[in-house]
Amino acid sequence: AVAGSTVELGCGAQGDPAPRVQWHKERGDLPWGRHEVDQEHTLRLYAVMPVDAGTYVCTAQSQLGTAAATARLHV
Which ranges carry the Ig-like domain (predicted)? Predict the structure, then answer.
């Protein structure tokens, strides 16, 4: 990603009952005040900076179990 741009990371988690979806960053926190997660579980990072580079993890959890997927961001 280019520094200063907006990045979208999708997480296609579905199920019945619907799973609880959470995003986190390995070795760090999500950028405070510069991120949001929409109803489709897409993580948006605004005005990305080199410090935002790293691995982001989407975790979906329900009574049936837990699944996780990762995305690596290079700035």
Answer: 1-75
Q: Which H or E run contains 66?
A: strand 65-73
Read off the pTM: 0.90
The reply to whether 15 falls in a domain is yes
Please list the pLDDT of the chain residue by residue as tens digits (75 residues). 999 999 999 998 888 888 999 999 999 899 999 999 999 999 999 999 999 999 999 999 998 899 999 999 999
Compute the distance between CA of residue 5 and CA of residue 18 in angstroms, rounded to an integer. 31
CA 40 to chain centre: 11
Name the domain count of the chain. Answer: 1
What is the edge-to-edge ordering of all strands in the sheet holding 20-25? 20-25, 54-62, 65-73
Q: Which domain holds residue 67?
A: 7-73
